[in-house]
Amino acid sequence: MQYPITITPNEILSILERLHPDSLLLVRDETGLDEETKKALWRKVAFSYDPPRRLATVEYLLLIMHEACEHGRAAYLTKVFFPWVGIKRRLHDQVMRIIDDIVRTNEIEAYSTDDAAHIATKVYRPLVSDVFDPYMTLLVATYAFIEGSFVDIETSNLGAQERSKAEMVQSRIRQSGGPANLLEGYDPIVRNALSHTGSEGVLYEPGSILFRNIKRGLAPIVESRRWSHDDLHSHVIALIELVMSIDAAVEIYGIDSVDLASGRDVTDQFVYHVLKREERLALGASLGDKLKDLQTIETIPQAERLDLLGKILFLQCAERDIPCTSVAFNTEDKTCFVTVPIDAKPVSDEEIRSSVMPLIRYLIIARAVFGELFDRFVVNGQVAGVNAIKVALPAGPLDEYAAEQAGLVDLLGDAQIWLNETPISFILDFDALAAAEDRTLGPRLPRRGRPISN
Question: Rounded to two decimals, what is the model's pTM?
Fold first, then answer.
């Protein structure tokens, strides 16, 4: 592994042609992007320290992701691809810190001990532990999906250390093909030495760095690796090249595949995992504006408007595969009533909680559909047509939920609840809930008073 690489002009032109976004599509004939956007994407895909490596890596990644799709496109998108994109989004702040530390190398004397120490500890180590590791999750999850052993994205992400992930990927490449140098930038001996430096783990010497992975004990076992400064630089570049290649392949695959998988679940997972908070809110506002036009149009009598909006409510419930029996209105009190079937009347506290949370979702949908026509929303859960449980919420908390300023549990605390027409209340231990959420992996859900960054 040596940079810069030697490559002829004809080879560059051939690689650039093969890295054109339209050339990388395996399903669609073209990206459907306008020319300026397509050129920007081409530059992103083709900009590389090592164009031959970029081409080989991107083509390999696209092939295994499309192979996974042969085992169920919608399932791969919703269980692997979209959740991994969500993981990638949550890495943004750490990636920006690494980039800042790369920029700081300009302030340090090149090839000095300080330069080597900065690159090793502030760039290479976090590149491996904080970026390479979760990026390997996409490959591990994709191979597991192909082989039928996939559990969920959290298991693929946190079920093994990055060394085990790398060994698994290398094993599959040997078995099924792929770039032999894919993980060339990763060295577990160096990574472990940098993670447990102590007094003997890393020695910065003139012109080179000695890394020691020490298995402690009465007779310590030492694995060593000596890198020149150029070796360190080359390994950093190879890791950055791998990360950029995965980013490029993910973008091309997304363009090629996302619009081919229809269904509410795919759309919801895309919005939840892929879009940033401001993008989700903008999408919600756009949809809300279209409904608002119908809610406020003066040329249609209110009764007809409510009838049309009621049909939209039924359609929204059907898309989510949740049954809805009827919808009614008290325009004088500005209250909307939704009636839905439930399987059984809840009795225990746990059964009541388990019944209330899904019922609140009907109120969230009703607020989105009817907007400011009503100030209060009530859902009545019936068993065989007989009232069993009723939940009511004012518009305010529902709007907070829509703006991702409150979560379902906050709405549970705000709700009025009747069981057999008798009012009941919950005492929620928010401290215990917060402690449980701190132990829960994956994206953070909105909660009142807790900002959600993305």
Answer: 0.87
